[in-house]
Design brief:
homodimer; Isopropylmalate Dehydrogenase; 2 domains; eleven-stranded mixed beta sheet; 13 helices; 46% helix; 15% strand
Chain lengths: 368, 368
């Protein structure tokens, strides 16, 4: 019934295999399979290992005629959104999330995608994939729509760990730079450290220490360190990579998404206000679609776990099929450019020469 | 040449006097006087004491024919944006900022407005106005456009202090509730504590402690405590008051503003894209203006310092005349409802009965 990984790889010549957790998202497996369908229709070069309740998945996959690109791994356990990471580590071996990471660990898939519980996903990833030598705290990096030439800025950590000392922040700067080079094609990324002001005396003690530390490593690492940046600079053209601790980064990310959602809602309401504004909306349809595509948080869905032996993409818990497809697209891009190995080399050389200079790949490319 | 405060008060029957720092903003005294002009044209019930270089101010005020509503206080010193608060406390007695606060301390004005250096303004306010008995850390509260019925949510602290322990956070909850009652007319404000997740085990230790503390005081204080909220909830209808430390709050505030600015820019660009979209923009002009008014951060310009003997409104450093006028409007509203006394009573009763239940006033009212 289900095909095995070998079939997947051979049938698609050189398919890139993505391991997908079908359970645990707010919208359940139907949305995940719909997202797989969307991806598959746009990019035939992806094969999927899909983890979850086989009974349910078989029906969903059949309905969308995805049998030839999907292999099902039956797992009965589901990590709930409110599960504690420590509990999941103890009792979560039968879950779809665990199985999803295991496929990357075994080398069956190149990248894992899950829209489940972030804390549990990071905990399982750390235990099963292990941290890269030299990395203290892995981080989650996200892409932020921006005025920069690439259209995106990288921000990290957005939620792997609520703490970060100056050494962690330095490492985030280096990992973020590698992501910007490989993912966005920026040869010499501009790095900023998030603070409540740009003056050097402001902020917490660890931020002042990190400010000095990153500055002293900038030349050697081939980055432009721009110093402290503020919340308003996150979507600006002043920086390519914004470095912060996971508590602050998570709040900023969700605040930005919340603001964008509020404005989108009100924009729609404004255009339904009168017959004249409805006519206007019709005339401006293309422009509005372009804008909405640009600011829609679903289109840049996917936080990437950095600092592990293997790549994991965390999709938004509430992602719909568009969001899931965006996360899969990101996973595919990272797999294609061999990001995991490049990042490992970069961390191993502990901020030496910029040897992971961009070779290819732009996350806003055509692959889907 | 310049009229004195007594004249100001008598000439306008019962004018409310606002003390305005004309220096120290990014755009200089011309923008501040322009903002005063805008306010004066909309609301004849305000008198102004304007602090700064008298030579410069005299010309600006004369040009706009504001002599009858403005008294000038000559001060040669200016607090720069990068000045350290400690330096300003030592050597800043001749500055326009110091003089602005002094007018509130002396009872000549009811509320002070400045768009200068936030840290210095808070330091001078704390030294000259002093903290309310029982308040450990004063906070800066801002209004956030939201889906709530009042159209705004209150968030605090957005930058008075980068630290806050559980007792501070409890006090912020009580002060924020008083602000929401008096400023927004919400009888029983819903209070949320900003965190990286809504589950009880998430976040830093002081947040877990504050969560318990605020919950245990909610009934007595006449508030609805909704528990942890996330960044995405800030502009939502789930809460009226968002409580956080000044570091996180400042980052969130500026991130929200940055996102709104980015989208506004792109919206304008979208409507200039083609002749058709320009026509559409023309047709949708009213709707777009309504939207832009709603999301324009300048229209809700003004952080209020809470926890002092006297009210101080901190305008955005980069505020233009629209922003300055919004800050003055906010100052006027707070002066009219006697907010300073009500807050003091609330803090004195240390979270007792909701005796400062709303009597009047809505910050989105008609006064300007």
């Amino acid at each position: 019934m289900t095909i095995n990984t070998k079939d997947l790889q051979t049938s698609g010549a050189s398919r890139t295999i993505i391991s997908v957790d079908a359970m645990g998202g707010d919208r359940g497996p139907a949305a995940v399979v719909a997202g797989i369908g969307l991806s598959a229709s746009k990019n035939p070069a992806i094969g999927f290992i899909v983890h979850g309740d086989a009974e349910v998945l078989k029906k969903l996959i059949k309905k969308r005629r995805l049998e030839s690109v999907c292999e099902i791994r039956d797992c009965l356990g589901v990590v709930t959104m409110d599960a504690k990471p420590s509990q999941v580590l103890r009792n979560g071996k039968d879950t779809s999330m665990w199985s999803t990471i295991e496929a990357v660990r075994n080398g069956e898939a190149t990248v894992a995608v899950s829209c489940g519980n972030t804390g549990a996903l990071m905990a399982i990833s750390m235990i099963r994939l292990r941290k890269l030598p030299g990395v203290n705290r892995p981080a989650i990096a996200c892409l932020w729509p921006s005025l920069s030439k690439s259209g995106f800025n990288v921000m990290l950590d957005v939620g792997a760990d609520i703490r970060a000392d100056e050494q962690d922040l330095l490492q985030y700067a280096m990992m973020g730079a590698s992501y910007a080079r490989n993912g966005l094609g920026i040869a010499r990324p501009r790095i900023g450290l998030l603070n409540v002001g740009t003056e050097e005396h402001k902020g917490r003690a660890e931020l002042k220490a990190a400010n000095d530390l990153i500055a002293s490593h900038a030349e050697q690492a081939g980055i432009d360190y721009v110093g402290f940046v503020e919340g308003g600079d996150i979507p600006s053209d002043r920086v390519d990579v914004i470095v912060t601790d996971g508590f602050t980064g998570n709040i900023a990310l969700k605040t930005g998404e919340g603001t964008a959602n509020l404005i989108s809602q009100q924009l729609r309401a404004a255009f339904k206000h009168s017959p004249l504004s409805r006519l206007a909306a019709l005339l401006a349809l293309t422009s509005l679609r372009r804008l909405s595509k640009r600011i829609d948080p679903r289109r840049v869905n996917g936080g990437v776990f950095l600092g592990l032996n293997g790549t994991v993409v965390k999709s938004h818990g509430s992602a719909d099929e568009t969001g899931i497809a965006a996360a899969i697209k990101l996973a595919f891009t990272l797999a294609e450019i061999g990001f995991s190995d490049k990042l490992a080399a970069r961390v191993a050389s502990s901020a030496a020469s910029p040897q992971d200079a961009q070779e290819m790949g732009n996350l806003d490319g055509n692959q889907e």
